[in-house]
Amino acid sequence: MNKNRIIGISIVVLIMGILLIVANLYIDYNLRKYSVYYAHNMEHKDGTHPEMAMALENMDVINKPDKKNIRYREDGGFIIYNTFSDSEEVIISCNPGEKELRYIYYNVMDKSYFFNEKFNLTNIYNRSIGEYEKDISPIDQEALYKEIYNNFGFLVEANVNRKPRINLQKEFNKKYYKRFN
Question: What whole-number distance in Å separates Cα of residue 7 and Cα of residue 157?
C-alpha cells in the first residue's frame, strides 16, 4: 500500500511540475507574440515608441507580412531591409541578445541612428565622414520617427490589432512599464 501511495504522489507531482513548466512557457510566448498589441494598450511616456520597439525585439514570433521589397533576416539579431531601388535602401536592426539592447536605423542619407531600449535617439553616426555627430539636438526626432514608421510601420500595423485569446496585459505592464515610463 505504501509503495502505491508513493508512486501515485510521484506521478501527481510530476504532472504538476510539467503543467507549471508549460504554463510558464506559454506566458512568455504569449507576451512576446502579442507584445505589439500589449505595448499599444499600455500607458507610456511621450517620446517613447513601445510598439516599434516590441515589433523589432520580438520579430521571431510576431506576424511578418510579405511585402514587396522587404527582406527579413533573423540569424542572431533581427534585421529588416526595405529596398526602394538598386541604390536606395533603409535598414532597421535589433539584437535582443546583446548586453545593452539598442536599435539601429540606417537611412539612404549615409547616417546611422542609434536608439536605446526605450526607442529614444541616443547617437548618430555620419558614414560619409566616418564620425559620430557630437550633438543630436538639431535632429527633428519626431520627423525621424515618422520616417522610420513610414518605412517599417507595416510591422506595427500587422500586429497592433491581433488580440490574444488569453489577455496578459497586466503581466506585460509589470514587465515593461518602467522601461517605457
Answer: 52
Say which DSSP state 114 is in. E
The answer to whether residues 51 and 35 touch, using CB atoms and an 8 Å cutoff, is no
Cα–Cα distance for residue pair 126/113, rounded to 1 Å: 9
The C-alpha angle 154, 146, 37, rounded to 5 degrees, equals 45
Among 146, 158, 140, smallest CA distance to 65 is for 158
Can you tell me the mean pLDDT for 78-83? 81
**Phi first, then psi: what are they for 94, rounded to 5°?**
-155, 140
- Buried-state track 132-170, b at ≥16 Cβ within 10 A, e below 16: eeeeeeeeeeeebbebbbebbbbbbebbbeeeeeeebee
| Statement: the pTM of the whole predicted model exceeds 0.85 | no
